C-alpha cells in the first residue's frame, strides 16, 4: 500500500533549507580557515627552517651523482669476482652488524623491563595516587624526549668507546617510548575484572597479576617487538658517536669517500631490517590473533 509523504508548508521548508545552507556555509568557512592556518604555518616553518624549493631542485643532481658513485661495477662475465671486490670486508662488517643487533636486543630487553614496571604507575586507571602518576609520566617523557644519540654521546664520554654506551642509550629511550605505549594499553583494559578482584579483597599487586596482565601481555609483547625493530635502526646510528656497532664503519666510509663501501654496508643494514621486520611481523600477528582462522 502506498504511503503518502507529508509536504511541509513552503515557509517552513524554506526556513529549514536556509538553516541547512547556513550550517553548511559555516562548516565550509571553518574548514577553509583551518586550511589557511595550516598553509601559513607551513610557510612560516619552511622559512625558519630555510627550506628552499629552488635550491632543492637546483642541487638534486648532486644527490643523484653521489648515489651513482656508490653503485659498483658488476659485469656478467666476472660477477663473482666483482661481488668479492665489493664486499671485500664482509666478515668484519657482518660481525659489526651482529653487534648492532645485539645492542638493539639488549637495549630493548632492559628498557622493556623498566617500562613494564613503570607503566602501571603511569596509567590513570591503576595509579595509586595522582602524584605517583605525575612523577611516572614526567620521567617517561624525559626518557623519550632526549634523543638516544645524545644519551649515547653522554655515555661514551662517561664510559668510553664501545657498545655498552649504545645499550644504555637505547635502554633509556626505550623506557620512555614503551612506558607510554604500555600505559595506554593498560588504560584501555576492561575494568570489570579489576573491580571484581578489589571487591574480593585482593591487593594492588594481586589485581595487576590476575586481572590486568592477562589482558595486556599480548599488546606489551607486540609493542616490544616493534620497538626492537626500531632499535635496530637506532643502533646502526650509535656508531657515529663511538657507541659500537656498524655505524662507525659506515661513517668512516662516508667521510673517506669509500663510495662502494657505503652502498655495501647500507644494503646489509637494509636487508637486516627487512628480515627483522618480516620476522617480528609474523610473531606480532600470532600474538594478537591475526591470521589464526585463515
From TrEMBL:
Gene3D superfamilies: MetI-like. This is Phosphonate transport system permease protein. Keywords: Cell membrane, Membrane, Transmembrane, Transmembrane helix, Transport. PANTHER family: ABC TRANSPORT SYSTEM PERMEASE PROTEIN P69, PHOSPHONATES TRANSPORT SYSTEM PERMEASE PROTEIN. Belongs to the binding-protein-dependent transport system permease family. It comes from the Bacteria. Its main location: membrane. It is found in: Cell membrane. It is a multi-pass membrane protein. SUPFAM superfamilies: MetI-like (SSF161098). The chain crosses the membrane at residues 31-51, 63-81, 101-127, 148-172, 257-276. InterPro entries: MetI-like, MetI-like_sf, PhnE/PtxC. Residues 97-280 form the ABC transmembrane type-1 domain. It comes from Kaistia dalseonensis.
